[in-house]
Amino acid sequence: MSKPSKQERRQQQLKLRRDAERREYDREDSAHLVREARFLYARGDAPAAHRLGRRALALTPDYVPALELLGQIHFEAAQYADAAYYYGLLRKRVDDPGVIYNLGLAHQCMGRNEQALAELREFLDRTRSFPAKKWLPLRQTAVRLAKDLEAAPPAVPETDEPARANPDPAPAAAEPETAPARTVTVEFLPTVVPDFSSAASGRLADYFLKRKLLELRLAQNFDDLVCLPLLHGVDSYAYQHETARKVLRLFKGRAILADEVGLGKTIEACLVLKEYWTRGMARRALILVPPSLVPQWKEELAEKFGFAPVSPDGAEFRKDPTQFWSQQPLIVASIATARLEPHASALAVQFWDVLIVDEAHCLKNQSSANWKLVNSLQKKFLLLLTATPVENSLTELYNLVTLLKPGLLATESEFRKVHVAAGRPKAPKNPERLRALLAEVMVRNTRSVADVRLPNRVAASLVVPPSPEEARLYEMVTAFVAERYEAGGQPAFLLGSLQRQAGSSPQALCRSAGRALAAENRWSATDRQELTRIQEAAAEILEGGKGVQLGQMLAARQGKVVVFTEFIPTLEHLGQICRRHGVACVQFSGELSRAEKDAAIARFRDDVDVLLSTGVGGEGRNLQFANTVINFDLPWNPMRLEQRIGRVHRIGQTADVFVFNFCQRGTIEEQLLRVLHDKVNMFELVVGEMGAILGSLDDSRDFGELVLELWVSARRDNRIEPAFDELAEQLLAARHHYAQSSKLDEALFRRDYEV
Question: Residue 607 pLDDT more than 70?
């Protein structure tokens, strides 16, 4: 047999490498699914937790946490055969006596006494020399159960033939005996109509009938939002509740939500979705948003509304996109991805109970791929979210309304003739008549009526000069990332993560390089050598310039301060800095349980002045009792930065808010801060305006991906500042366009569509 050629060997190596990458991605996705499943199971949603656990197991069949969770779910649901199945799989994969104990309990509950006894004895033998404190309660239970099983009579074997005392051949069959006839008497008792007028009258059956009657009445109106007790950490306001009721009751779930920026259109849309879901009127939903807003929507839905949304960026989607679109109940997707084939065709054949489109001014043109996609989708309820329904022409408004209620504004030519002034596409000809028609599909709340007033926000940038060792380390990382990014051999998100951690702290970079080296099949020998050099250089830097500046600031500053970072190693390092400077602090991260998170926030509010938080602190937690935000590192997506600030600068804040943004000179973060702070004045914008500006950029990539590509290409051409200046010009043009559109919409709609 001939030896494989060099090219064939390389193809085999590439295939092995891709398979290893796919397995690693699948394992990461499985871990995420199990975390969500445990969260749902803790909240009592066992079916959803079971569904996510099965999905995790489909991705990674030997994933131990998924097997443990599924075994627990089935055992606690008294489905002992299924529990025994998963415990049996676990026993083959882990050397844990606790699994043997659980398997014995499952078999004992199933009546398989011999198997249960053998497994309990094995558990007792295995744990005989184990520490008593941990295993004593289980051993005591196992001893008691084993004694009971030993004393129990032997189980009758389950065979088709009953056991015989005499094995001799049976005599000839006798005539079968006729079973005595049985009579059944059915007596119909007189029915008494229960008295529904009194809450205390009637029997238990009457109570259930009355409850069913109330449920039927409730399903026919939306005076009460039944979803409100199910929300977690949602600061919703009266005007938002009224908006949701109006959409549900009057608009029948099809509306334009056109509140001014910062008033919570996302909350209103999620309230409508949750209400339909709670009442059983929706079981599938698709949410289409700009690429930069996908993470924010997923976080809001999961943290505040108890959903388990997915997006088309994981292994399950890559494995079979068509199946993903057809089976997932709640999907948050970039509209730039959804409009591409084959995704658009796969989406069009599905039926969606609820379709939500954020930054819906991307649907202003009927000839655009976005409009055609939304028009092609089969949907029952449709919500279009935009603070600027009209940007250039009233025809854009016609196109939005046509998606909601075709024919409400007649044909396009008739609409132009009746409602648009000749030669002035932005001026309505019959404004009162147009307002009356739009009142059937649009809600637009304004700040003046919602009475939303926020104190001032003051931002400052702290560009810290690096030490020679820090500068050399950052250059090593940048060269490593740029070379692999341009070669295309590694996923962009992995390289971007390495570059972001280089801008965060040497501690985060050191741990990241270590994790990369642990993935043996991912990197070549040369790559591993470079990563080792990076790890060693990072380990030698005990404290960077940013850490020194932060320690001095915290030691001198009064009042409640929230310090944000993206990475756990940096968070731990910040804790060391606080301790060295005698600053009392509390740490907050996604690794904490819900109870631990609540306790950390309570301690920050009542006892200490500094909260050290990862990005999860910007999700679903209201910290308006603080008035200083320090961004120790900068997320590349401005929306995450806005989320952080929005935790403090929000309704209920009474003091001026101070924002300090740290970055190291010569880094991506310095250029990004120069664009957002110095050029675009992001920190002067109302919370929510940055999302509207980013939504108007016609780019299918996440903003962080755009930043990494710009950095790599500009560094190669030695034009970093000009390249980021061009990005700033794009954002400024988008901001100017948004401002003009806002003025036009304010003039057109005034206060005629508020609740």
Answer: yes
> Are the CB atoms for 639 and 676 separated by under 8 Å?
no
Q: Is the dihedral of CA 551, 555, 557, 558 positive or negative?
A: positive
384 sits in which H/E element? strand 378-385
- Shortest CA distance to 238 belongs to which of 271, 215, 212, 213? 271
Residue 38, judged by CB atoms within 10 A of its CB (0-12, 13-18, 19+), counts as middle
Cis status, amide bond into 342, omega within 30 of 0: yes
β-bridge pairing 628-631 and 442-443 = unpaired
CA distance 700 to 114: 62
Q: Is the distance from CB of 253 to CB of 382 less than 8 angstroms?
A: yes
Closest by Cα among 571, 485, 472, 484 to 527: 484
Contacting residues for 635 by C-beta, under 8 A, at least 6 apart: 500, 566, 615, 641, 644, 704
Average pLDDT, the chain: 81
Per mean pLDDT, which range of 23-32, 368-377, 388-397, 533-542 is the poorest?
Answer: 23-32
What is the DSSP annotation of 78-114? T-HHHHHHHHHHHHHH---HHHHHHHHHHHHHHT-HH
Q: Which residues of 227-254 are buried (b: 16+ CB within 10 A; e: fewer)?
A: beeebeebebbebbbebbbbbbeebebb
- Report the distance separating Cα 582 and Cα 502, nearest Å: 27
- Indicate the helix (H) or strand (E) that contains 577: helix 568-580
Compute how many other C-beta atoms are within 10 angstroms of the C-beta atom of residue 399.
21
Residue 498, H or E segment = helix 492-504
> SS3 for 462?
strand
Which has the closest alpha carbon to 629: 656, 651, 606, 605? 656
The residue among 573, 494, 566 whose CA lies nearest residue 531 is 494
What does DSSP say about strands 457-464 and 378-385: parallel, antiparallel, or unpaired? unpaired
R_g over Cα of the chain? 32
Q: Quick one: what percent of the chain has pLDDT higher than 70? A: 81
Alpha helices in 607-702 (DSSP H): 638-646, 668-673, 689-695
DSSP of 43-91: TT-HHHHHHHHHHHHHH-TT-HHHHHHHHHHHHHTT-HHHHHHHHHHHH
Which residue carries 């679109």 as its tokens? 325
Q: Yes or no: say if 703 and 349 are a contact pair by the CB < 8 Å rule.
A: no
Which residues have C-beta within 8 Å of that of residue 556, sequence separation ≥ 6? none
Structure tokens at 291: 């690429």
What is the token pair recorded at 147? 């004694």
Phi, psi of 552 (to 5 degrees): -65, -40
> Strand order in 351-357's β-sheet?
330-334, 285-289, 351-357, 378-385, 254-257, 442-443
State how far the Cα of 26 lies from the Cα of 18, in Å rounded to an integer. Answer: 12
Q: How many C-beta atoms lie closer than 10 Å to residue 602's C-beta? A: 11
Helix (H) or strand (E) holding 215: helix 204-219
**Cβ(641)–Cβ(663) under 8 Å?**
no
Q: Which residues pair with 378 in a beta bridge?
A: 351
> Which tokens hold the place of 95?
């050397």
Q: How far apart are CA 560 and CA 616, in angstroms?
A: 18
What's the maximum distance between 2 C-alpha atoms anywhere in the chain?
A: 108
Q: What is the pLDDT of residue 47?
A: 78
Please, which residues bridge with residue 92 across strands? none
Q: What span, in angstroms and rounded, lies between the C-alpha atoms of 688 and 713?
A: 30
The half-sphere exposure of 674 on its side-chain side, counting CA atoms within 13 A, is 19
pLDDT grade for 586, boundaries at 50, 70 and 90: very high
Does residue 86 carry a pLDDT above 60?
yes
